[in-house]
Amino acid sequence: MRDNSSATAHISPVVSHSRAGLLWSLLGVLAFSFTVPFTRVAVASLSPLFIGSGRAVIAAMLAAAALAITRQSRPTGSQWLRLAVVAGGIVAGFPLLTSFALTTASASHAAVVIALLPAATAVAAVIRGRERPPLPFWVMAAVGAVVAMVFASLQGGGVAELTPSDLLLFAAVIAAAVGYAEGGMLARELGSWQTISWALIVAAPVMVLLLIIAVAQQTPTAAPIEWAAFAYLAAVSMFLGFFAWYRGLAIGPMARVSQVQLIQPVLSIVWAALLLGEQLTWPTIVGGCAVVLCAAIAVRVRLQRAAPIPSTTARTHNQRTMET
Questions:
Q1: What is the pTM (predicted TM-score) of this model?
Q2: Mean pLDDT value across residues 122-146
Q3: Cα-flanking dihedrals φ and ψ of residue 266, to 5°?
Q4: Residue 177: how many CB atoms within 10 A of its CB?
Q5: Of 70, 193, 206, 240, whose CB is crowded by the most CB atoms within 10 A?
Q6: pLDDT category of residue 18 using cuts at 50, 70 and 90
């Protein structure tokens, strides 16, 4: 009986789900890690407004087809408003802001600033979930922000000099953090890929208008490699990558799974060096490691507070209850 008890059967799926969440989120992070370098490639010929709006419009068409083919139920009530928050953060905000920023900033520089995103997402999740994390969480999140600002200002030419591109990148981090936190919660109600699909649909009218304006201002012409980068941004960064990312967050636990995002800036810097030939300078390496370390500590502190280890008595009681 003990070998086939319900307690044993219950414990195994938990481990499996935990690993599945990490694997799905890792796949999503790998897809997103190419976003900054490929945006840098695309802005060489295409306008940032065209890139930011065009990728969203193409992804919205893919989303509409997927929703229609699978006959998904429509969101209801307040879910539409929450989808608007997701759309504002990750469909419109992050793509447009980073596209404009990368017209002047290097991909590796942008990756270091965007390394704040895991800590910012944790902060957004704390605020959204009305949690009360310990003081070290807020301290490390603040230290990470200061480190990123110091890095950006030093790269810009002086301690007190933040470039317009840096301000755009910081705004992009805030927008994405809000979109990730709200999207992760919605994914548990609507489904992983359904969440990003409906968010794309919600944002489509505005993004179509912006695309029309972008084409009217400048006829899009680019080399094949630049069009290929744009296609990746539209199909993968804006759509397919979220299938995996929100799937991982939905399986959860969200606090633990979100830590995988800490490797994204490291991967982006590596791709920038390999694909774009950007030089890996010591300030970039040290700055990136410092920001990632601060974000990692902040996220882990929140995780430890949010998921305390149950006592032996509680575990024994739960096992006896399940066996009964």
A1: 0.78
A2: 77
A3: -65, -45
A4: 24
A5: 193
A6: low
